[in-house]
Amino acid sequence: MKNMLALTLVLGTTLFAAALPLEEPFGLWQRHMEAAGDTLFSAILPGPTSFASEGAFTGLSEDLSRRSERPRRNFFSESVFWGIEAALQGGYLSDAFESSAGVKFRVAGALAEGLTFDHQASLWTGSDDLPPGGFSEYHIHPNQEPGRHLYTDWGYIDYGSPRVSVRLGRFAQEWGPGRFTQLLVSDNSPPLDQLRASFNISDRVAFSGFTSTIEPDSGSWFCAHRLDILPTDNLRLGLYEGAFYTTNSFDFAYTNPILFWYAVQWNEQDDDNLFMGLDATWKPVRNLAAYMEWLIDDFQYQTTYNRPNKMGGTVGLDWASPSTGFALAAEYTAIAKYVYSQKHLRNIFLHNDRIIGSEIGPDADRATLSLGYAGLWPMTAELRGSLSRHGVGTVYDGFGDTVVAGEPWPSGIIEYTRDIELNLSYRLSGEFTLYGSAGYCSKSNAGNVQDSTANDTRASLRLVYGI
Prior knowledge:
Elements: H1 2-8, H2 27-36, E1 44-45, H3 58-68, E2 73-74, E3 80-93, E4 96-112, E5 115-126, E6 149-160, E7 164-171, E8 174-175, E9 192-200, E10 205-215, E11 220-232, E12 235-246, H4 252-255, H5 261-267, E13 273-282, E14 288-298, E15 310-320, E16 326-335, E17 350-351, E18 354-355, E19 364-376, E20 379-390, E21 415-427, E22 432-444, E23 453-466
Antiparallel strand pairs: 1-8, 2-3, 3-4, 3-23, 4-5, 5-6, 6-7, 7-9, 9-10, 10-11, 11-12, 12-13, 13-14, 14-15, 15-16, 16-19, 17-18, 19-20, 20-21, 21-22, 22-23
């Protein structure tokens, strides 16, 4: 058990470890495996994960492990491998038929002992200029040019050992235990170009930090570091800090992972955007995981200027039963107005105009309930519903000197959104998987306009071939 705890605390991931890509449609089932298993996962995903399970989850666990491996086909060398995934999708969106197709090519291999590389590029096209499932929308060309879209999903070199992992390149990650969203680092924005290092200090303590470029031409940077602790076998605690800033030169203060950055910002760089937070996962009984995350963007410890606090929080439960094949996840996230904003527009927490943190944005909350079933493997099913509220606040509002506490939350005319979706998958063979999806969304006070409504019905069928 002790060795397994040490394994799951390694925050950096190597090519040959179990690391399910974030865009993988079975990502939620990976999270369920934490509730169903005996160990706690790392707070940073993708990362090494034990998919071992039993009962109705056996086939799914084996498939998740296979999906997490490196490509299997050799590429002119016994140490270089390649793989291809092609997707063809058709469906209805707002009573119009749309079609899309895409292909991903991946090459990976070992450069030396402990040193690996991994690269994946994707190319897609769609009649509505949107990609098929599994291809993120941020692949769209920044100039909004229609037609085909080419993107580098990830590309990095990685050094890994039992104690240290260092990764340099472009890759996506999620920080925190949230099943449906994360508050500081999520996959809502395009992958960051970064240098990340992780250290397994002991069997129960791990430290990780990264430095990333956001807009190289404008000198925007984002740095973050975190400490993860296992006080007991069934409890993981994480403390983190992040700094988003703009500078004309390289700032070694924020790239120093040992410093307490809040003190740096308070005493030296008071125009930077700092974050602090904590997250935790607790397994009180077998098959059940309870989790939380608390983000502090700005906490008012003095009342002189009557400024509001800027905070966000997530709480959730994840239950998975290997004996029946059922899984249930319930999550609630609330984010105050002005979170992710800053008095200097250059320091708003964005990457390519997408929030690096939670996609629901500030001045909003959302409750999500998901029921999954994998008892008829190779078929899985998930029914997901959510209720959300959005005030008039946006991430672009800034946090000027005129902002005062006491404003209602959510503020202004509140937009209410109700969404329900059914997702199905069926493994046809070792290479082919069929995905189906149908959903309905309705909005009241749509666009924060009083009494306006909007409805959307969608359905799609996607065939994926992968080797």
